[in-house]
Amino acid sequence: MIQNIQDTIVAFATPPGTGAIAVLRLSGKKAWQTAATYFKAVSGKNLLEQESHTIHLGHIVRDGQTLDQVLISLFKGPRSYTGEDVVEINCHGSQYIQQEILQLFITAGLRLASPGEFTLRAFLNGKMALDQAEAVADLIASDSEASHRIAMEQMRGGFSADIKQLREQLLNFASLIELELDFSGEDVEFADREQLLGLLDALTQRIKGLLDSFAMGNAIKAGIPVAIVGAPNVGKSTLLNALLQEERAIVSNIPGTTRDTIEDELIIGGIRFRFIDTAGIRETADSIERIGIEKTQASIEKAQLVLYMLEAADLSKERYNDIQKDFANRPLVVLANKMETLSTEALEKIRTEAPEAFFISAKTQQGIEELKSGLLEKMKLGELQSEDNLLTNSRHFEALQKTLGAIDEVKTAVHEELPGDLLAIDLRQALHHLGEITGSVTTDDLLGNIFSNFCIGK
Amino acid sequence: MFDEIFDVIVVGGGHAGAEAAAAAANMGSNTLLVTMNLQNIGQMSCNPAMGGIAKGQIVREIDALGGYSGIVSDKSAIQFKMLNKSKGPAMWSPRTQNDRMRFAETWREMLEATPNLSFYQEMVNGLVVEDGIVKGVKTSLGLTIEAKSVVLTNGTFLNGLIHIGDKNFGGGRAGEPAARGITEQLVELGFDQGRMKTGTPPRVDGRSLDFSKMIVQPGDDVPSRFSYTNTPLLEHQRDCYMTHTSAEVHELLKEGFDRSPMFNGRIQSIGPRYCPSIEDKIDRFKEKDAHQIFVEPEGWNTVEIYVNGFSTSLPEDVQYKALKKVRGFENVKFFRPGYAIEYDYFPPTQLMLSLETKLVEGLFFAGQINGTTGYEEAAAQGLMAGLNAHRKVKEEEAVVLKRHEAYIGVLIDDLITKGTEEPYRMFTSRAEYRTLLRQDNADLRLTRMSNELGLASEERVRRVEEKENRAEQFVQFLKNTSYHPETVNPVLREINSAEVKQSDKLIKVYSRPKMTLAHLERLPEVQEHMKEERYDAEVLEQAEVMVKYAGYIEKEKQNADKLSRLENVRIPDHLDYHSLKSLSYEAREKLSEIRPSSLSQASRVSGVSPADLSVLLVHLGR
C-alpha cells in the first residue's frame, strides 16, 4: 500500500552516526502542534504562537524528563522545503538521543517518512521543476533499495525468526476469525472466546517482547556482549589493555558480577562493545576451577560474539576447525596472538591454513585496527552507522507498536462479545501493520491457511 | 437470415449470458442472445441454490443494479435462509434453494419480456475480427451475424471434457456437446489460454431415500427475499435434509481411487479448493471419518434430489456402492452419476476493468471463461459486461464499480489485477471494507447510480428513497423518545445488561449489544409507534444497522476514503512503463501486462512496491 501523502511525517535529515548534531525533520499539518507538545522553550514561549522562519532554544521533554537540549526551526508552508508546515529539530548527535527523540514522535502518532518522501512531497507541492521528476524518482528508488537491502540483512538474524513466528500466530488467529465468518456452515470446530483471548494474550506478549528486546536502542544502550575466551596466559588481559589504551573512550571498568569475569566497555566506531574477560578454559577435574569454567560457559551463553584467543604457534587447520565446532551457532572470531614470536614463513603457512583467523600482537598492538573493523563487520554493525539502519529499526518499532495497538482493540472487541466481522476490522489493521515488516499478509494467505487446515466445502 | 447489425451479441445463455443480454437490451442496445439450446437458458448446472455467504450479497447487488437474478431466484425459491444471522450485519447472507425447472423457466419468461432482445439457437464457433476490432460471430451452419460488440459467456463448454472414473468424453454439461473453434481462434489472435476443472455430485431419486433417518433442515420461520422489488414472499417452503458419510463409505470410495482421474493424473487442471470432491476430502483429511451430506430437493414437484457434499468423478459403480452405505441412502436409485469437467478459460488479466479484452476491441468476456466459479459471480460479470458492451457501442466511458462500493467491484478488480490460479469464488474476506458491503444496503449503494446509467428503473429509485426516509424516521423516533426505567429494566435483566436508574432516549438502550428489536418492541411506547407506522421489515433492518453499527461503519468509511484518494490518481492508458527506469524491473513487467487504470489498482498488482508507487506518483506529476 502506498503511503498516505496527507499525514505528518518525521525522519532525520542529517546522515547521522555519532556526530556532533543531528537534524530531525517533521513535515505536515501536525508538525508544529506535535513539536510544541514535547518542546519546552527556555524563554517559556508557546511554540505555536511564534513566527515562521524563527529559531528557538529549549528542551525535548518526555513524561517530565528532559531528553535533550535542542534548537527548533519553524517553517510555515508553503515557504518550506516540502511546501508543508515543517519543523526542524537540531539535537545532539548521539545515536541514543536520536533514537529516543524519533521514537517519541512516532509514539505521538507521526509516521516515519518513507525513503525519499520529503523530496517526493517537495516535488508534488511544486517546489521542484517538472524536469527534475526523473531525478526525484531515481532518488526514491535508490533510497528504498538501500533501506530494503539493509532491512533484509538485519532480518537474517534472530529477529527474523521471531517476527516469522509472530506472523504465523497472527495469521492463524485471523484464520480462526475468518473461518467462522466465511465458513460458518462448515463442519469444522470454531474457536470459542476463551481460546481467542488466550491466543490474543500470547500475541500481545510476543509483540511486547519484541518491542522490548529489539528496540534498536538496545544494542547501543546496553552494548554488545563479547566474551574473550582462551587458555590462561594466552594474552587476554594484554589484548583488553591494548584495545582500551588505543581507545580513549573508556566508559567504565567495573568488576563483573562474578569474581572471575571482568567487564570492560568501549566504543568502536560509535558502537558500544562490552568485553567479558573469562576464566581460562581448560579440561580439569579440580572442583574450584570447574566452578570458574561453568561461569565462563554462562558468559559465553550471554555473549553475542565470542573472541577465541590462542597462541599463533598453536593454530593449525585442524585446531581451527575444532574451535569452530566447539562454538557452532555462535558468531566467532579466532584470534591468534603473539604473532611477533613467529617467523614470516611460519606465519604465512598458518595464515593459509586458517585464513579466517585474525593475527595480532597484543604486545606490539599489531593487527588491532584490523580486529576492530573485523568486529564491526562480524556483527553486521558496520551499517548501524548509517541513517538507513536507524530508520529500518525505527520502522520495525513503529510497525510493531501499531500492531500492538490494533491487537488491543481486538481484545476489547472480544471482551465486549462483538461479532467477528467487526472484530476483523481491527484484526486487519494489525495484519496490515505487521505486513510492513514481513511483507503484506493477503487474503490469499488467509484463505490458503484455512483451506490447508480445515476441511472446507460441500 | 440476419441482415441487420446488432449492437451486442451475447454468446451463451447461462447466468452470465442471460444477465448480459438483459442489461444490454434494457439499456437500449439491439441485442441478440445466441445459444446452443434455447431450452436450456438459465440452467443451474450444479446445485439448485442461489446466494449464500458473500454470494447472497452479490445477488442483492445485481438486483439493486436492475439485473434479473434476484427476481428469478425469489420467484423460483422453495426455501429461504438468512445465513450468519448471529454475526454482525456485514455477514448476514441470504440464500435460497430453488426449483431448478422453474428457475430456468422464469429466466426465459423474463428475457422474452425484455425489449430489444432477439434469440437464436445455434453453436457459435468463431468470431469475426478485423484489425483488432470484433465485427460479429460465425455459427456452425456457416452463418455470419454482424455486431458492434460481442460478449462471450461460454461457461464450461469450451472444449469441455467430462470425466467419470476412467471414462471421459467431450461435453459442456451432462447431455450437451462441447463448443469447439472459439478457443483455437482466440489463441491464434494472441490470447493466453488455460484449463480449469470443476465437478458435480450425483442426482438421485427422492422416492428411494429414507428421510426419517436424516436431520431436517428447514427454511427460516420468517422468510425474506433477494429482490428490492416487491417479489412475493414464500408462504410455505420445502425442507432440506442432512446426513453423514462414515468410515465404511470412505473405505468403499478408496477402492476406486486407482481409477479416479483426479488421482491417476488424467486430470491435470486445477479445481476449486473450497469445493473439493468427496475423494479429495477423504484423501486430504484422513483423520475425519464423517463428512456432511446435504440432501437438497431440485424443485416443488420433482422427486430429483441433489446430493450436496458428494461431488465426485470416481467410477459410477464406486459412487453407487459407497452412496448406498450413507444413512438414509440404503436403497438409493441414481438419476445420474457425478462427474468432473475440464474446460478452457482465459486468464482474466487479459481484460480491462470493463471486462473488454485488451487484444480485441468490442469483445467482452464474462463468467467461467474468466476463471470464476458460481452462478452469482457469473451473473455479476454478465451484467457488467452487458452494460459496458452497450456503453462501448454508444461510445460512452466504461462503468467500473469500486472495491468499497460492491462485491462486484472486488470480484472484477481481483480478476483483472491479480488473475486467478483456481476457479475464483467470492468470500467476504476478499473485501477490504466488508462492513460497507452489506446485503441490507446494496440498493442504497447502487440503485441511484444504475438509474442514472439507464438500467435501474425509476420505481426502484422511488423504493430506495422511501426506505431511506422511513428508516430515518424510525431512528428519529428512537432519538426523540424516552424510555422509563420500570418498563425497560425487566428486559435488560433478561439479557444480562446493566439496569438503568434514570430515563433516557430509546436509542441508548437499543445500541446495547444484546438488545434486539423484539426486546425493544416489548416497551409500550415502542409498541404503539410500531402499530401506527407499520414499518417494512427491510426498513427496520436498515434502522437497526444504522443505530447499532454506526461507529464501525464510520471507521470503515474513513479507511475506504483513503483508498479513494489513490483511486482518483488516474494512470493514462498508454503509459510506457519500460521507459520509467526508476521502477523496479519486476514492476515494469507487471504493470505493462496489467495496465492498471489508477494508482490504487497499481498498488494491488503483485510485485509493485511502495517505492514503485512513489516513483509512479512522481511521473504522473502533481
UniProtKB/TrEMBL annotation, chain B:
**Protein name (database record):** tRNA uridine 5-carboxymethylaminomethyl modification enzyme MnmG
Instruction: Give an example GO cellular component term for this record.
Output: cytosol
Location of the tRNA uridine 5-carboxymethylaminomethyl modification enzyme C-terminal subdomain domain: 547-618
PANTHER family registered for this protein in UniProt: GLUCOSE INHIBITED DIVISION PROTEIN A (PTHR11806), PROTEIN MTO1 HOMOLOG, MITOCHONDRIAL (PTHR11806:SF0)
Q: Subunit notes for this chain?
A: Homodimer. Heterotetramer of two MnmE and two MnmG subunits.
Among the GO biological process terms of this entry, one is: tRNA wobble uridine modification
The record's annotation in HAMAP family points to: MnmG_GidA (MF_00129)
